[in-house]
Automatic annotation (TrEMBL):
Species the sequence originates in: Actinocorallia libanotica
Superkingdom: Bacteria
Family, per entry: Belongs to the beta-class carbonic anhydrase family.
PANTHER family, per database record: CARBONIC ANHYDRASE, CARBONIC ANHYDRASE 2
Job description of the protein: Catalyzes the reversible hydration of carbon dioxide to form bicarbonate.
Descriptive protein name: Carbonic anhydrase
Segments traversing the membrane: none
Length: 213
C-alpha cells in the first residue's frame, strides 16, 4: 500500500507545505520521479492531495510543491473556475481515491481575475467562451470591491476564498468528508516572483492565514 494512504488531512497539508519550502529554498528533492516510482504507481494511484489551480503555465503543481508521480491529483482551469465536471473530478479523488486534502491554488497577476476586473470596472468585452470564465469569476470580484479591496493580492485571495466556499456549498461529498474529519479543504495563493505559497482559508485543518514559506 502507498504510504500516502495513511496520511491524515493535517499530515497531507504539512507534506505539501514542506515541498514548497524546498522549492523556494532551491533545494528540491524531486521525489517519486524515477523509473522505480513509475512502476510502483502503474497498477493504481493513491495521491495524497487534490490540487485545483489555475491553468497558468507558471503554476506547475508538481514543481512548486516538489512532488512526483502519483502524489498529486491535479485539476486546472483558467482562474480555477468550477463547473460540474470539475466538481465531479474532485469528488472522484475524495470519494474513490480517498484523498485527505483538497487545495485550491490561486496566484498573483492572474489573467482571469484581471480580465474580470476590467470587465466589471470598464465594461471590457471578450470573445467566445472566455466570457464564461469571466462570468464565473465576477462574483469574487464584486465581493472584493464591496469589501473595499484595491490591491491585486486582495482580489486573488477573495477569489480563492469564494472558490473554496463554492466547492463546499455545491459538493455534498466534499462537505461531508470535511465534517467527518476525513478531508481538509484549504485555499492558498502563490507568488510568482519568489515561489512562496500563502494560506487564505482552511476547513478541516487548524492553520493560520499567514505565509507558509
Amino acid at each position: 500500500m502507498d504510504a500516502h494512504a495513511a496520511l491524515s488531512p493535517k499530515e497531507a497539508f504539512e507534506t505539501l507545505l514542506a515541498g514548497n519550502r524546498r522549492f523556494v529554498a532551491g533545494t528540491p528533492e524531486h521525489p517519486n520521479q524515477d523509473a522505480a516510482r513509475r512502476s510502483e504507481v502503474a497498477p493504481a494511484q493513491s495521491p495524497f492531495a487534490v490540487l485545483f489551480g489555475c491553468s497558468d503555465s507558471r503554476l506547475a503543481g508538481e514543481i512548486i510543491f516538489d512532488r512526483g508521480l502519483g502524489d498529486l491529483f491535479v485539476v486546472r482551469t483558467a482562474g480555477h473556475v468550477m463547473g460540474p465536471e470539475v466538481i465531479g473530478t474532485i469528488e472522484y479523488a475524495v470519494e474513490l481515491l480517498d484523498c485527505p486534502l483538497v487545495t485550491v491554488l490561486g496566484h498573483d497577476s492572474c489573467g482571469a481575475v484581471g480580465a474580470t476586473r476590467a470587465a466589471v470596472q470598464d465594461g471590457a468585452t471578450t470573445k467566445g467562451y472566455v466570457r464564461d470564465v469571466i462570468e464565473r469569476v465576477t462574483p469574487s470580484v464584486l465581493a472584493a470591491q464591496a469589501a473595499g479591496c484595491t490591491e491585486d493580492t486582495d482580489f486573488i485571495a477573495a477569489h480563492v476564498r469564494h472558490t473554496v466556499d463554492l466547492l463546499l456549498d455545491r459538493s455534498k461529498v466534499v462537505a461531508e468528508a470535511v465534517a467527518a474529519g476525513r478531508l481538509a479543504v484549504v485555499g492558498m495563493t502563490y507568488r510568482l516572483t519568489d515561489g512562496t505559497t500563502h494560506l487564505v482559508t482552511a476547513h478541516g485543518v487548524e492553520a493560520s492565514p499567514v505565509a507558509v514559506a
